[in-house]
Input
Amino acid sequence: MSQDPRADDRAEPVLSIDEIRERAYDLWDRNHRPEGYELEFWLMAERELMAERKSKLEPGAAADGRPMR
Output
């Protein structure tokens, strides 16, 4: 019998396409709007947002998402 993946405590945080799009646009804009790098900025935005979400979900994380010392 297989486990329900939704029951996993370590499930990946869900990101919306709009969140990724906004972050990718911001990254692209801050990097002087180069042409031909859409995928790179999209993937960078997705990685950043996932890292931020995961850090907020870690036990012992502060309210602002930073790990407590």
In short: DSSP finds two helices and no strands in the chain. The chain has one domain: 15-69.
